[in-house]
Amino acid sequence: MASPEPDGRRRRGGEPRARGELSEVMKDKLIESRLTPNAISLTGLVGNLIAAVLVWQEYFFLAGVAFILGSVMDTLDGRYSRMSGKGTKFGAFLDSTLDRVEEGIVLTAVAYYFSTAGDDVAVAATVVAVLASLMVSYTRARAEALGVECKVGIASRAVRVVILSIGLIFAKGAGIGDFELLAPAVYVLAALSVFTMFQRIFHVRRQLSGGPPPATSV
User: Which Pfam families does the record cross-reference, listed alphabetically (predicted)?
Assistant: First the structure.
């Protein structure tokens, strides 16, 4: 008769199954709950509103944390929608709309801060960043309405969130060293967003002209 496996081996073999079962149970509980993708989207909006207020009050580190948390919620709503099957066409529309609003709200607060500091160049760069970020999203939406997939470009939503988060967390007075990265972050954000807008314009032109697709995409 074969000897039983050591307890340690049984535990190691059973752990993945136990974790998988627990994950499935949690997933089923979430799906059965009253939580909706729209509720997650609205939670992300609240987080970004809090971030904008904190920027206005010049609590930059806390603003960066709130902005990150709000942006994470923006990411989760789409995944939860697909996982739970609770997504609707209006929910997808609301998600995209709130993403644009949230980014604009936080950057508007940043522009206000630069204005009070008398940094007109940074104010102008923030305005460019807002406009170009909106155009990055608009070019994709308009392209997809024409039947062209348009996810190319450097400054995707995730990249823009990372850049602005770094700028907020390492802003002057944020309490982390002597860094002042908010203005540089805005300059980078504006430049990359403008560049990405043109990347998408040329990509759509190439696709509609029947040319070969670009080598890389984001």
Answer: CDP-OH_P_transf
Query: Could you read off the pLDDT of 112-142 as tens digits, one per residue?
Result: 999 999 999 999 999 999 999 999 999 998 9
Q: Which of 74, 77, 95, 99 is catalytic?
A: 99
**Nearest to 51, CA basis, from 59, 41, 40, 42:** 59
More confident site: 191 or 174? 191
The answer on 92 and 159 residing in a single domain is yes
Question: Token pair 């770094």 is at which residue?
Answer: 166
| Domain total of the chain | 2
Distance of alpha carbon 52 from alpha carbon 202, whole angstroms: 34
Tokens 């990347």 correspond to: 199
User: In whole angstroms, how far apart are CA 5 and each of 1, 64, 71, 175?
Assistant: 12, 51, 47, 55
Q: Domain check: are 147 and 50 in the same one?
A: yes
Residue 213 in any domain: the answer is no
Q: Token pair for residue 81?
A: 């929608």
- DSSP E strand stretches across 22-122: none
Say if 216 falls within a structural domain. Answer: no
Known active-site residue 28: no
